[in-house]
Each structure stands twice: as C-alpha cells, then as structure tokens.
Amino acid sequence: MDKLMDTPWFIKILALLLAVLLYSSVPHAGKDVYVPGEQTSETIKDIPVKIYYDTENLVVTGVPYTVDVDLKGPITHIQSAKALRNFEVYVDLTNAKIGRQKVNLKVKDLSDKLQASIKPNSVYVTIQEKIAKEFKVEAEYNPGQIEDGYAAGTPAVEPKRVKITGAKSEIDRITYVKAVIEEKEKLKETTTKTARIQVLDKDLNKLDVTVEPETVKVTLPIKETAKTVPINIVRKGSPPSGVTIESIDLDTAEAVITGDEDILKNTESVRVEVDVSKINDNTTLDLPVIISNGISKVTPQMVKATVKVSKQAETTVSGVPLKIKGLGPNLKADITDPANKVINLIVNGPSTALSGLRPEDFNAYVDLSSLPEGNHEVNIHIDGPPNVNYKPDKSTAKITITNNA
C-alpha cells in the first residue's frame, strides 16, 4: 500500500475519485448547482518550502519555512489539491554560488489544470560555506535554585566539548556555549541533570547552528554550609534607679548559622540584645538571636535569658575604729577629732550585700607619713567590700603629733 501511495498514477486516480465524490455531494437544484468545469480560486496556507542544495558543504538562510499559494482553476481540482496537498513548493539552489542572491520559488507536481501564484514568489537567500568546530561547554545554574544554607560547587559537564556546525558567519559569532540547569525545586544535594546546549552570541542572541550532541549531563555538587558560633549578650540602656543587674545567663551559649561560605568566614558570633532599662526584678526573657546580613539561617532562632537583679539599699555602719598609719619614729599621735576615735559609714549597695555588714568589714585610717610635730587635719581613708559604695560621716580628722623621745 505504501508503494502505491508513492506512485504518481495512484495519486491521480485517487484525486479523480475524490473529485467525483465532491461533485456528487453538491446540490443540483437552484443557483447553487456546480458543473465540473466551473472555475474558482482559493488560497492554501502554510505550504512547506523544500530547498535543493549541497547540504554537506553549504548552509542556506533566508528561505521561509512555509508560504501561501493562490490556486485558480476548476473547483474539483482545487478541492483535490487542498485536501491532498500533493504538490511541492521549492527553491532550486543546486547550481547557486556562495553569496546573497534573489531566487524564485517554484511549484511542481500540481495539476496542469491549475494556475499557482506563490506569496512571496521570490526571496533573497544567503549561501555560505558550512563549517564545523568544537567548543567547550560551560554549565550554568541559577543561584536562586540552591536551598538556603547550602552552597554549590563547580559543576561538571559530560561531554566537556561539543561539535557545532553552521555557516561560517554564525560560527564566528559564537561567544557562549552553555548548558543550563533548569529545576523548579530547591536543590540541597548533589544533582545530575540533562541540559540542552544553548549557543549564543555576545548579546545573548540564539544562533542558527547544529549542535552534536544536543544535550549534555551536568553534575552540580551541593553541600550544606554551616558554622557554630557563640551567642554574645549585648545590654541596651541603663537599669532603673536602685536596680543592679547581677547576671544575665542564656539557656544555650552557641548557635549554628548557615549562609554563603565567604560570609561565614567573617562571622565570629551572633547576639541577643537585653533592654535592661525595663528590668526591675529577676526575670526570664524570650529573645531572638540576631544575625548579620548574609546569614540565611540561625539555630536556635530564640533563646531564654535569665536576668538576676539586686535592689539598691542604704544602711549605716556605726563605730568603725579610726586607725593611724605612717607615723614617724619617736613620734606620738593623738586623734582629737573625732574624740571617740570612731566614725560612721553610710553604705549603699544591693540589699543582699548590705545585710550582715559589721564595722570589722571596713578599714578606716589616716596616713601621717612625713608629717612633723604639731596639729594637723588629715583625710580619712576607707577600705571596704568591693560590691558596695560607702561614705564616712566625717571626711577629715584632727591629729596632734608630739615628740615621744
């Protein structure tokens, strides 16, 4: 049957039978009656154009893929041609020379009862030498395809080079030969994909060339990027009057951050910020872990901060003995004021630190170094616990120094 379909006589007989059937289906009453010889015209669209040329050594551009053909003639022949599309539009370039030239489009295998008009009936074509050249393939991917916290390595292409065939002018314009990985899902593990080759000029216009092979395999290595860093506590503001922040402790001291490798190299810590201006009592806060720009993820995102405070209080420690230091040899000193040789201290500090303070916890003294005989007024010095503030009710003492020789 296939051989019969390729026989011109079989096609002509089939066309005749179709014409008879079409004629018998037309009504034969009134003004709509047609006779076999009635003339008409019709346009048949999108007829492929065949090109005859040396395909091994030449490249032809400028020939349209399809054209429209206007047919005139007996209606039965036109309907047969329209139904079977058994004619050919072609361009014969078998003897054409290299270069740009105007050529006519022709029709063959059309019934001699029909007249054909091709749109367009002529075109300018360019005939060039066909050349082939090998190019290295560069793999390309969208960084946005990579899942946050992961980084892609250098992609591997197999095969690394492809053969590109086309007109010399097109081959000379090749700037990029790319294999682009296109993936809708976010990638977080090493992936191998089949990618179609794209051949582009410097302006990223696609070039009309043939690539062998048309696809390559691209393996994109992907690994997770993470780093463990300490969580620093940053205090904001000042505590309310009378409140001292004793300590701030976090339920976890470290966090795992993910992001670009270069950002991770320069990131040594993350932080939480504690606004101490609003803290009056011991409390526990849920605080976000703050990261710098470029860090895509941190674990944990929230931490608990336990804040311990002490309230400031004031008390008086009475009867602190006043001692003498630095008195020279053969000299005697007598404290004349205060007469009882004791002072009182006004002490401020956390209430827990004030409870239980005794005079023995403080060292009050006057320094008489290098002082001669006579009456002197000297400063009173105090040594005491480091976590409280204290002030004597008298800042100076009156001393009489005499010779004891």
Structure characterization notes:
With 405 residues, the protein is mostly beta strands. 12% of the residues lie in helices and 52% in strands. It contains 6 helices and 31 strands. The strands form 7 sheets. Strands 19, 22, 24, 26, 27, 29 and 30 form a 7-stranded mixed beta sheet that branches. Helix 2 crosses helix 3 (75-84). The longest helix is centred in the first third of the chain and has 18 residues, at 8-25. The protein starts with a helix and ends with a strand. The model is unreliable at 1-5 and 27-35 (pLDDT under 50).
In total, how many beta strands? 31
Task: Give the helix/strand class.
Answer: mainly beta
Principal-axes shape call: rod-shaped
Largest sheet geometry: 7 strands, mixed
Round the Cα radius of gyration to an integer and report it.
51 Å
Beta percentage is: over 45%
- Estimated helix fraction: 10-25%
Number of helices: 6
N-to-C CA distance: 150 Å
The average pLDDT score comes to 88
Which runs of at least 5 residues are low in confidence (pLDDT < 50)?
1-5, 27-35
In a few lines, what is going on in this structure?
The chain contains six helices and 31 strands.
Task: Present the secondary structure layout.
Elements: H1 2-5, H2 8-25, E1 39-52, E2 58-61, E3 66-74, H3 75-84, E4 88-92, E5 99-104, E6 106-108, E7 115-119, E8 122-136, E9 138-140, E10 150-152, E11 156-158, E12 161-167, H4 168-173, E13 176-180, E14 191-200, E15 210-212, E16 215-220, E17 222-224, E18 226-236, E19 243-250, E20 254-259, H5 261-265, E21 270-275, E22 283-288, E23 295-299, E24 302-325, E25 331-337, E26 342-350, H6 351-354, E27 363-367, E28 374-379, E29 381-383, E30 389-392, E31 396-403
Parallel strand pairs: 1-4, 9-13, 18-21, 24-27
Antiparallel strand pairs: 1-3, 2-8, 3-7, 4-6, 5-8, 8-12, 10-17, 11-16, 12-15, 13-14, 14-16, 18-20, 19-24, 20-23, 22-24, 24-26, 25-31, 26-30, 27-29, 28-31
